[in-house]
């Protein structure tokens, strides 16, 4: 069984749509993360959750809204996105919200905004 | 400030050749962690290795080997006898004992042709 799963794997949406990305981790970890990976750019950390509490928000626009109902699930709610938001969105988890043990990543959601 | 530099954007080799990926890092922390991840075309980042700042032993795992040199702030990765399945983007990352803040390098695309 894959440790971190993400759905959907691909998403195409218009700028006025509202959609959500889902991430689930089966590793018993306490921290979860959202990253954005755009073409030809480094991975950008968006949000960090530790024990369901948001501990980091890297100046992400409000059109991205995270939700962490429990330590196994993480959502990213999307609304009124722009074409430049098209990217691969990666979810990750780690045992704790420190870097010591590394992060485990899901397969990502490829988002296209028309 | 933390920084990870992967100066090689793309490396192309023929199968069975060795390939070395460079990673140079900057940090003011005395305790830190270095990682390598592989991202195949499917998109998922696969954890390869973690090394902490107090352990300068080189490591070999099958065809993979890592050379950590604190004196030059480098953590290089070598694939011996490359195979087509090694074609991927490889990321070096730096972490510290803070809230899950990884600093990823820009990645190096490795293309292995038969």
Written account of the structure:
Chain A has 114 residues and is mainly β. Chain A is built from no helices and 11 strands. In chain A, a hairpin with a 2-residue loop joins β5 and β6. Chain A is globular and about 35 Å long. The termini of chain A are far apart. Chain B is built from no helices and 12 strands. Chain B is globular, with a radius of gyration of 14 Å. At the A-B interface, β5, β9 and β10 of A face β5, β6 and β10 of B.
Notable traits:
heterodimer, A: 114 residues, mainly beta, seven-stranded mixed beta sheet, four-stranded antiparallel beta sheet, 11 strands, 0% helix, 56% strand, globular, B: 114 residues, six-stranded mixed beta sheet
- Could you spell the SSE succession of chain B in H and E letters? EEEEEEEEEEEE
How much strand of chain B?
Answer: over 45%
**Rg value of chain A:** 13 Å
> Helix coverage percent of residues of chain A?
under 10%
The residue-averaged pLDDT of chain B reads 91
What are the low-pLDDT stretches of chain A, counting only 5+ consecutive residues below 50?
none
Specify the helix fraction band of chain B: under 10%
Tally of helical runs of chain A? 0
Largest sheet of chain B: 6 strands, mixed
Total DSSP E strands of chain B: 12
Number of H/I helices of chain B: 0
Q: Name the chain pair with the biggest interface and residue counts per chain.
A: A-B, 27 and 26 residues
* Run of helices and strands of chain A: EEEEEEEEEEE
Taking Cα atoms only, what radius of gyration of chain B do you get, to the nearest Å? 14 Å
Query: Outline of chain B, from the CA principal axes?
Result: globular
Q: Give the helix/strand class of chain A.
A: mainly beta
Gross geometry of chain A: globular
Q: What is the CA–CA distance across the termini of chain B?
A: 41 Å
Oligomeric form: heterodimer
How would you characterize the largest beta sheet of chain A?
7 strands, mixed
Stretches of chain B where pLDDT is under 50 for at least 5 consecutive residues are: none
């Amino acid at each position: 069984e894959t440790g971190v799963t993400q759905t959907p794997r691909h998403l195409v949406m218009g700028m006025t749509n509202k959609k959500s990305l889902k991430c689930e981790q089966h590793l018993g970890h306490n921290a979860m993360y959202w990253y954005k990976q755009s073409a030809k750019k480094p991975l950008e950390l968006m949000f960090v959750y530790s024990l369901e509490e948001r501990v980091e928000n890297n100046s992400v626009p409000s059109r991205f809204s995270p939700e962490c109902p429990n330590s196994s699930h993480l959502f990213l709610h999307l609304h009124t996105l722009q074409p430049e938001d098209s990217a691969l969105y990666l979810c990750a988890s780690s045992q704790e919200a420190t870097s010591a043990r590394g992060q485990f990543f899901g397969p990502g959601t490829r988002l296209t905004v028309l | 400030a933390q920084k990870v530099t992967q100066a090689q954007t793309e490396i192309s080799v023929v199968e069975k050749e060795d390939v070395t990926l460079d990673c140079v890092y900057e940090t003011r922390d005395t305790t830190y962690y270095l990682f390598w991840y592989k991202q195949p075309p499917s998109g998922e980042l696969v954890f390869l290795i973690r090394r902490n700042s107090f352990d300068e032993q080189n490591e070999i795992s099958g065809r993979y080997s890592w050379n950590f040199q604190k004196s030059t702030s480098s953590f290089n990765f070598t694939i011996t006898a490359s195979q087509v399945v090694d074609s991927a983007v490889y990321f070096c990352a730096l972490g510290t004992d803070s809230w899950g803040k990884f600093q990823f390098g820009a990645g190096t695309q490795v293309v292995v042709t038969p």
